[in-house]
Design goal:
This protein has 265 residues and is α+β, with helices and mostly antiparallel strands. The protein contains six helices and seven strands; from the N terminus they run H-H-E-H-E-E-H-E-E-H-H-E-E. 25% of the residues are buried.
């Protein structure tokens, strides 16, 4: 009798073990199907982002090209006027903003990745200045790079875009008769970082821009949008952007980037 009870108990335990095994297999299959569905959704999302980027690039660049051609015809047919110069500057600003949006979208979609390389801050400043010939026409800009400033480990194209946007913001915020300053130096808080600053004597740091620099939403659609893009590009390179009130009035837009490792002599 005891043997019969033991056999029944053993069969019950085996049945319970098989049931638990089947449940585990079913749960594993459910997880697999969910992960597969998630993976397919990501693939579809990436494909959609890629097609959207192509459409935006074409549909927005085409009218800008037409505007540029029209402005060139105006310049050839008559002497330059302040209105033509103003439209030209705004057209270039819109073109840069589109380029920035596309660059940020490509990074977000994984279509491109930053390609950091050792880059002297002076080269980045030079690239930012060359990107803004109309905005900076007639402006006095000083450039200062401390002797002990290390090279920045950054994607040169992305870093130049960030600095150009910050410099454009400074030029629009400050009066034309006040100088703009570009300065670079090592991070005094510790090694491994380099600071690149854009300084102006404008009205200071608006609340909306401060929130944008901190990575939060900004109610502004002009300078705020450019700053949000800058934050995104800087983060992609392992950098940060901080807006500070400048002693004596104005703003310091600080871009901090990783410093390149020193090469032994």
């Amino acid at each position: 009798m005891s043997r019969l009870v033991a056999n029944e108990q053993r069969r019950a335990e085996e049945a319970e073990a098989r049931r638990e095994e089947v449940e585990a297999l079913l749960a594993e299959r459910e997880r697999f199907l969910e992960e597969r569905a998630h993976h397919e959704a990501l693939k579809e999302s990436d494909a959609f982002k890629t097609s959207l980027l192509r459409a935006v690039s074409h549909d927005l660049r085409t009218p800008i090209t037409a505007i540029r051609l029209g402005l060139e015809r105006l310049r050839r047919s008559a002497a330059d006027t302040p209105d033509v110069d103003a439209v030209s500057a705004e057209t270039e600003r819109l073109s840069r903003r589109i380029d920035n949006l596309l660059a940020a979208a490509r990074l977000d979609a994984g279509a491109t990745v930053p390609r950091p390389e050792p880059t002297p801050p002076a080269d980045l400043f030079r690239g930012a200045l060359e990107a803004l010939p109309l905005v900076l026409a007639g402006r006095h800009v000083t450039v200062t790079v401390a002797e002990d400033t290390p090279d920045a480990l950054a994607d040169p194209a992305l870093a130049v875009e960030v600095l150009a946007n910050l410099l454009e913001n400074a030029a629009r915020a400050a009066r034309r008769d006040t100088p703009l300053e570009l300065a670079a130096g090592p991070d005094p808080a510790g090694p491994g970082r380099v600071r690149l600053e854009v300084r102006d004597r404008g009205p200071g740091v608006p609340d909306g821009l401060a929130r944008a620099a901190a990575g939060g939403p900004s109610p502004e659609t002009g300078r705020g949008l450019g700053l949000v893009i800058c934050v995104s590009l800087a983060h992609a390179m392992g950098g940060t952007i901080t807006l500070l009130a400048r002693p004596g009035g104005g703003t310091v837009a600080r871009l901090e980037l990783p410093a390149a490792a020193e090469v032994p002599a």
